[in-house]
Design goal:
Length: 229
């Protein structure tokens, strides 16, 4: 009487398990992202108000916000606290300025996002031009503003960059000691966040929360060192 012993090589290989089409994805559909650009780089803004993709200062530079690909690769959210679904999202007619309207149980706010372009009256030291200077060029600045429309809404800012496609966590340093500017550094890059809100450094992120009235809330600017993005 003889016995045979099954080995791993004798067993049929298991077929790879495919993810169920019904399983929810942690990532928004690419069609749900809004696109901002200053002709040198571009940002993708998720429906929840988070910038999930941005490379500075050029399209081919490593990302500083890369949550589009990896939830740990950096993002920058500005929106109402505890509310992730906007009421409307449109572009200002004739512009690349994103306008997002938020309705909450306590009121309404409007957020504007843009990678700004302005008159070119000096040489661009961040991305030098080899040809004649255009009349308008990139300010190398991401600008985010909040407008209170009705009631009082708690606005939350969470800025958590991760440099070199998420491989390097940000190291934050307060600027000028007034709590309204901070530099994030990593992988040979530095970006600056400026705001009229009081910023708090918490590990690899900067956070702020504000309860605006129906007046214009403080502008929120993201800038690249030494003074712009």
């Amino acid at each position: 009487m003889s016995a045979t012993k099954n080995t791993a090589s004798d067993r049929p290989a298991k077929e790879p398990q495919e993810q169920s089409a019904a399983a929810p994805s942690p990532f928004p559909a690419i069609a749900d992202y809004a696109f901002l650009s200053n002709c040198h780089t571009g940002a993708l803004v998720a429906p929840d108000g988070a910038i999930d993709w941005l490379c500075v200062p050029r399209f081919d530079a490593p990302s500083v916000f890369g949550s589009l690909l990896d939830r740990q690769a950096g993002s920058f959210r500005l929106g109402p606290f505890g509310v992730n679904h906007p009421t409307t999202r449109i572009y200002e007619p004739g512009t690349n300025v994103l306008v997002t309207t938020w309705k909450t149980p306590s009121g309404w706010i409007l957020v504007r996002d843009a990678l700004t372009i302005g008159p070119r009256d000096h040489e661009d030291k961040i991305i030098p031009h080899t040809r004649a200077l255009p009349d308008y060029g990139a300010d190398h600045m991401l600008v985010r503003t909040v407008l209170g429309l009705e009631g009082r809404v708690a606005v939350e800012l969470v800025c958590e960059p991760a440099f070199d496609y998420g491989r390097v966590s940000a190291q934050w340093t307060a600027v000028d000691g007034d709590g309204h500017a901070a530099d994030a550094s990593g992988a040979g890059q530095t970006i600056r966040l400026c705001s009229d809100l009081s910023l708090g450094i918490e590990g690899n992120s900067v956070r702020a929360r504000h309860l605006p009235t129906t007046a214009i809330a403080p502008p929120l600017n993201g800038r690249r060192s030494p003074s712009k993005v």
